[in-house]
Amino acid sequence: MCTLPIYRFWLAVGWCCFLVTANVVAQDWPRLLGPTYDGVAPTPDAQFDFTKPPEHVWTIPVGDGYGLGSIAAGRYLQMDAGQNDGRTIQERIRCFDLATGQMQWEQSQSVEYRDLYGYESGPRGTPATDSDDIFTFGVAGHLNCRSFRDGTLRWSVDTSKEYGVVQNFFGVGSSPLVLGDRVIVMVGGSPAEDARIAPGRLDRVSPAGSALVAFDRATGKELWRCGDDLASYSSPRPMQIDDKTVVLAFARGGLIAVDPERGRVLWRHDHRADILESVNAMVPVVERDRVFISECYDVGSALLQVSLDSAKTIWVDPVGDRRRQAMRVHWSTPVLVGGYLYGCSGRNPPDSDFRCIEIATGKVQWADDRRSRTSVTRVGDALLVLEERGELQVVRLNPERLEVLATWDLTEPSGPRPAIAYPCWAAPIVIGDRVIVRGDTDVLCLRLRTKSESANSK
């Protein structure tokens, strides 16, 4: 019986009816960094009154992990670790009504993971949604495909086992990329003999041609693997070069461009500090035929002009000279607006700031003096800047100077809203008038007030 098309039709009808009646704008945040891979909220005409603090809508308690979720069809998806006995964790995904925060379903999977440095054992990545599929990539390397309707597991691949992955410093921290009938993830496997290497000694680990692996989204069968590199904490993203879709992956050793149809590396650009503990984590920022990459340990940033067969350096930071480096991005991807990058620069709180640089030249326009790490999301002509301890600022897009429009301290409770606690490392999600932020043990949904709402209340 061919009932699936009919089922999908009525499921879509149900979603549409929900979205019409719910007080939520019918938009999606289907993956890490949103629908356009750049941390820009799909609210270009938003007219918010940032002089008014946001309203609390709901709170979701969460377990171990650092990532925020994704949003599709009026539902919010969140991964975390439900239980942890020191070695085996219950890696779970839950689905919530975006309007009310009421849980719709929960599914979990037992995986084995122990962090080498004592960090939380929950997932770091973000679920990717597409149609009626959800793809998750857990901290131990399990790539899962689930039903959007109820979370039923359709297929699962233990990539760490299948590709001989030697555990990275903090486990798997990349998120999946869905392109057509392919699911592409950063795996970074090694030869079988490398399994005997001591934990944490990635300098002794060899790549084995599986920096990126593509799987058939319907079956989980491998379609191709490519790239001689280990995995990083960045996530693959697409870009257009000469009307052709190319996948960029900022792997452990540098940036690679891949033809997603044939699984062939088009070019590679080395970019990593020459010390064991360094990692690459930001998602490449794309502007036409230029790509910005950065790390915070020693090398700093570079702007590349790319084609289908090469990447040429436009400018690069002086290695090891932190005072002269344009931007040193750790884990938070900066936002590009009008030729200027806004984002956090620095590895640790004492040497970190939020700054603006001109992307064409690397010239620093301004930097604040907060000395702590932040993540950023664009909302119309403003930026939501979340400090890792829980302060949320609204900053106007202004390359001439820092212009703070509002500061909301989420580290203190306010009415029904509980406080959030360090670490707040995930960039905020913004859909319509809703803002989703995560602290260590809670996810908050806040509602931004509009200017028309404020005018009508006078």
Q: Which structural class is indicated by helix and strand composition? A: mainly beta
Count of DSSP H/I helices: 3
- Number of E-type strands: 32
Write down the Rg: 21 Å
Let me know the average pLDDT.
Answer: 92
Q: What portion of residues belong to β-strands?
A: 35-45%
Secondary structure elements and pairings:
Layout: H1 4-21, E1 55-61, E2 70-72, E3 75-84, E4 88-97, E5 103-112, E6 128-130, E7 133-137, E8 142-147, E9 153-158, H2 159-162, E10 177-179, E11 182-186, E12 212-216, E13 222-226, E14 237-241, E15 244-250, E16 254-259, E17 264-270, E18 285-287, E19 290-294, E20 301-306, E21 311-316, E22 335-337, E23 340-345, E24 353-358, E25 364-367, E26 374-379, E27 382-387, E28 391-396, E29 404-409, E30 429-431, E31 434-438, E32 442-447, H3 451-456
Antiparallel strand pairs: 1-32, 2-3, 3-4, 4-5, 6-7, 7-8, 8-9, 10-11, 11-12, 12-13, 14-15, 15-16, 16-17, 18-19, 19-20, 20-21, 22-23, 23-24, 24-25, 26-27, 27-28, 28-29, 30-31, 31-32
Description:
- The protein is 6% helix and 39% strand.
- With 458 residues, it is mainly β.
- A hairpin with a 2-residue loop joins β22 (335-337) and β23 (340-345).
- The chain is globular.
- 48% of the residues are buried.
- The model is unreliable at 1-26 (pLDDT under 50).
Write a concise synopsis of the structure shown:
This protein has helices at 4-21, 159-162, 451-456; strands at 55-61, 70-72, 75-84, 88-97, 103-112, 128-130, 133-137, 142-147, 153-158, 177-179, 182-186, 212-216, 222-226, 237-241, 244-250, 254-259, 264-270, 285-287, 290-294, 301-306, 311-316, 335-337, 340-345, 353-358, 364-367, 374-379, 382-387, 391-396, 404-409, 429-431, 434-438, 442-447. By secondary structure, it is mainly beta.
